[in-house]
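Figure 2 data, in text form.
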Amino acid sequence: MALAPIPPRTLGAILVVIMIFGGSLRMLALTKPFYVDEVTSLTVASQPLASMAEVMRKIDASPALYPTALHFCLKVSHTDVWARLLSALFGVAVLWAAYQLASAAFGARTGLWAAFVVAIAPIHVEYAQYVR
């Protein structure tokens, strides 16, 4: 017996609820103390753009996209929450991406389940709170 299709408006509403819930989980611990590797990322991102590549070669071997995005984020504020907000937003974007990928491959219901599983996955929640 096949399940009835979910109306598009209902699908969208469920996905929004999952993303709000997942976003809330990712925002809960944004004020925790920084780890050493997070301080490294903040040090690199705090440099002038012209100096970032040289500093990265010396102290950090990470790809440059995240520190560059963080550099512009830090132009707005240097608070702990603001520094971690970029990672949390990327974490929420992954919920949407999980929905899109699973929906394309297996259907909308599976897409919703995939987004929900990623939303509550402890390891994903934790890493979406790191400046890294």
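Caption note: The two ends are 46 Å apart (CA to CA).
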